[in-house]
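Quick one: DUF2029 domain-containing protein from Streptomyces lydicus, structure tokens please.
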Amino acid sequence: MTSARQDEPVRPTKRDEVAAAGSELVGGPIGRRALLGTHWLTPVRIIALVAIGMFALGMVQKLPCYNGGWFFGATSQYTHACYSDIPHLYAGRGFADGLIPYFDRLPGDMEYLEYPVLTGVFMEVASWVTPHGGDLQSREQVYWLVNAGMLMICAAVIAVCVARTHRRRPWDGLLVALAPAAALTATINWDLLAVALTAAGMLMWSRSRPLAAGVLIGLATAAKLYPVLLLGPLLVLCWRAGAWRAYGKVVAGAVVSWLVVNLPVMITHDATGFHIREGWAKFYTFSQERPIDFGSVWLLISQRTGNPLENANTYATLLMILGCGAIGLLTLYSPRRPRFAQLAFLVVALFILTNKVYSPQYVLWLTPLAALARPRWRDFLVWQTCEVMYFLGIWMYLAYTGNGDKHQGLPTEGYQFAIALHLLGTLYLCAVVVRDILMPERDVVRRDGDDDPSGGVLDRSPDVFVLGRAYHPPRHAVHFEKVPPVRWGAVRE
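--- reply ---
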């Protein structure tokens, strides 16, 4: 493949049947002039506008709740599928009363805010912008609008970061911008903050800036726990490539930025010395102590068997450890070093699938990772369809169980089918990603002549540590052409 060919942006409407068919709705496949960005409407700008438009449609979908569903009648917010934590927690977590998260004790059983520090800061900033006059319902409406505006910025950032991560594949960001499940779940909670920081961190890693990537991953971990999982795939990939300096920088940046955010809230001092603040620790204790919850495989098993599964924490931890070990072996045994986005998707999906809860908004965690790991419209839309079905299923189930004797909604058996559907949808996407790793000739990114566009220092880097079949690479493996790998862990001098 010539250098000019390698620098040419990939046109999904020329390579993907579903993308080509879908483009007919807007006039057919995009032309060369528009694709190369000679007009003001470059791919990145188009994707940002589409992301904002889809987010706005998601806000419109919440209109029945905004007009009273959150406040009058417990089930109307479920029958209209427009539930959001945001207005409920404005009063429920003390923001309406001016309480300071992690420092002021809340009335009731919760005692302290059960969110990580950076998410708490996000929530607090939104409460500062919310006017304190008027009735509580109006203030909750404004609080939701303020948060929605801030989260819309996060949504645009995510789409732009994905579009810029793979330099030759900017249109893959359109998968994120148009994701229906993401639009429906964007304002359920504050997850988009952590997702945006994670996407920005992956963009920095793809540009060979590991320290900046680490800082952003640390900040994302201060907003939600899952981004720290990305350090695992990077460890195995850098091990295989011998890129220890870059890995050291990303870990150092993550640790320092996480501590900068958390230490001021984490440590308290009295006459007896320094202590961990109870309010700061609430998120971690709550995650450990909470029972099995909606959407998880554990709830499905519990409901089907009648077993409360009190040891679900142990089972989930064990499965997570075994799964991470399997991903590590897959990385070292695969014929070509997996792409960073592929492993990032697999480890986060593993965490969600084994977790005690699989909330509908968790689809936001996976959406940008899926677009980078498997930028194939058919597979992406199959998975998104499963998630949309679950999104509808959980609210109809809550309407059924919370509507007294009327039972209007989805019965338990229907909800169990919805759980199984979204679990299988995620497992399906995991399966095709694993297949791409084991059969790199089927990876749509590598088929276009790239190695690992999201890999940064790993892109086209030779291997120094491989196991098994990876010792005999296929001839098309670009990064094996320069230096042959060392077998069974021998380190190259």
